[in-house]
Design a protein that fits this description.
Layout lengths: L3 E4 L4 E4 L7 E6 L10 H19 L3 E6 L6 H10 L3 H18 L15 H13 L3 E4 L2 E4 L15 H6 L15 E6 L14 E3 L1 H13 L3 E7 L3 H16 L4 E7 L2 E3 L2 E2 L10 H7 L2 H9 L7 E3 L3 H21 L9 H16 L4 H25 L5 H18 L6 H11 L4 H16 L3 H13 L2 E6 L2 E6 L2
Parallel strand pairs: 3-4, 3-9, 9-10, 11-13
Antiparallel strand pairs: 1-2, 5-6, 6-7, 7-8, 11-12, 14-15
């Protein structure tokens, strides 16, 4: 099966064929750094992290560029509100974003340019648009003439007439047309500025990404991505600017991830339901957060509730308990049935090749988990030989999958140690109660054993009796 991607530009799944065989140029719009990143940013970052990882798995040489928008109205407004320099604000939240990404296990892109590092390219691009008749200067401001670009609206499906009648365009008397948008903004008192042919000022948001993409990846790229909220106007304007300047297609494939809702409502400051990544990581493992974000296909909206991450932590725990059983049985990813492994991997890749369907791919993982437990239970019950090479193929599969999904990469010992630490469990006290319960059962004092089990249950401890031993884990 070949990789097929849903292309927002054509509204259909298409076979992925890069412009240059064996190479992929991927650009993803990064954060505007004026505040801490929230779970919606995590959805985009993790989704494209897995896309990046899977394309590498397929053998592509990838130039993955994700930018920082480090100059923008929101940053300036935040700086003014806090009484701090805009550079301090931008640097603080770049560091915050990077820390969050590291916490979530997101791999570093090939390039991480900042808008302020591309001012020269931005000015050059604006000059080209003016010379070609697609932009015009009004004093020290420069605007893009939307009606001059014939393909405007091809990504979002919007047309000029609907936009004009929608009355959602900010009125600015300096514009030749109310639909036109700013490429360069003249400086105001107290605002940052750079020299330009039109006067001191700063770039508009849309031109920043076009310039950085052109500078780092070239005139035509294979994939451009970001959140669904960026389709219009940001990505639509990027297309208009870039294609008007170069005369070439800007991006062959457009990928957009869906939203994260909180308790079935869209995240918004007015509702006060913004969930920051750092807050989520304080009380939950990165494993459970990534598993939650990947348990739905990236284009679908997902709903976060107070129970969501607990449910996904339970899934992660089930995975690691199974791996522990496989290892204790003596199976190893170094000794496996090659034919079985290839068959298992093919099922996983079939899901990923279908527009990076991580939901289906994770479903395959837990099918393998169920099968491995059945196999181990059957061998224990009937006293038959454990199929080590078959279980080895499963272990080998999980090792391969962990590198693609960025989950299930720890050892069981490491995972359960982190769970216990996060839950602030007194391990010595738990072990003492577990031994007391075993002693009560050995003495056939089942009432006492049940009483101890109830104590442990109240502490969110799950017991598993197996082969004369008791294993315990923390319920999340």
């Amino acid at each position: 099966m070949t990789l097929r991607i849903y292309n927002t530009l054509t509204n259909q799944k298409e076979e992925f064929i890069p412009l240059d065989p064996g190479k992929v140029r991927l650009y993803v719009c990064g954060p505007t750094v004026y505040s801490h990143s929230h779970i919606g940013h995590a959805r985009s970052a993790v989704s494209f992290d897995v896309i990046y990882r899977y394309l590498k798995h397929l053998g592509y040489d990838i130039n993955y560029t994700r930018n920082y928008t480090d100059i923008d109205d929101k940053i300036i407004n935040r700086a003014n509100a806090d009484g701090e320099d805009w550079k301090v604000i931008a640097e603080r939240y770049i560091e915050s974003f990077d820390k969050d990404m590291q916490g979530l296990g997101v791999e570093l892109p090939t390039n991480r340019p900042r808008a302020t590092e591309s001012i020269e390219k931005i000015i050059e691009l604006i000059e080209t648009l003016i010379s070609k008749g697609y932009a015009y200067a009004v004093g020290a401001d420069v605007f893009y003439s939307v009606r001059k670009f014939e393909g405007y609206g091809k990504l979002s499906g919007k047309n000029i007439e609907d936009l004009e009648s929608g009355a959602r365009v900010q009125i600015d008397e300096r514009k030749e047309d109310p639909l036109d948008f700013a490429l360069w903004k003249s400086s105001k008192d107290g605002e940052p500025w750079w020299k330009s042919p039109w006067g001191n000022g700063r770039p508009g948001w849309h031109i920043e990404c076009s310039a950085m993409c052109l500078e780092w990846l070239g005139e035509t790229i294979d994939i451009h991505g970001g959140g669904k909220d960026l389709v219009f106007p940001h990505h639509e304007n990027e297309i208009a600017q870039s294609e008007a300047a170069t005369g070439k297609p800007f991006a062959r494939n457009w990928i957009h991830n869906g939203f994260v809702n909180i308790e079935k409502e869209k995240m918004s400051k007015s509702l006060g339901n913004i969930l920051n990544i750092s807050e989520a990581l304080e009380e939950n493992s990165a494993e459970s957060i990534r598993l939650f974000l990947l348990s739905s296909q990236y284009r679908s909206p997902i709903d976060y509730t107070s129970e969501t991450l607990k449910e996904n932590e339970a899934k992660a725990e089930r995975f690691y308990r199974t791996i522990k059983r496989i290892e204790e049985a003596g199976a190893s990813s170094d000794n496996f049935d090659a034919e079985s492994y290839e068959k298992k991997l093919a099922h996983f890749k079939a899901a990923m090749d279908d527009d990076f369907n991580t939901a289906a791919a994770i479903g395959k993982v837990f099918e393998e988990i169920a099968e491995a437990n059945r196999s181990l239970d059957k061998a224990a019950k009937k006293g038959t030989e454990i199929p080590l090479e078959e279980l080895g193929a499963t272990a080998r599969l999980f090792s391969e999958i962990s590198a693609i999904l960025g989950i299930f990469a720890k050892s069981p010992a490491e995972y359960f140690s982190e769970v216990k630490e996060r839950a602030s469990i007194d391990s010595a006290e738990i072990e003492k109660l577990v031994k007391a319960r075993l002693a009560a059962r050995a003495a056939k004092d089942f009432a006492k054993a049940d009483e101890i089990r109830d104590q442990l249950t109240a502490k969110n401890i799950i017991l598993e009796d197996r082969d004369g031993e008791t294993f315990w884990t923390v319920k999340q």
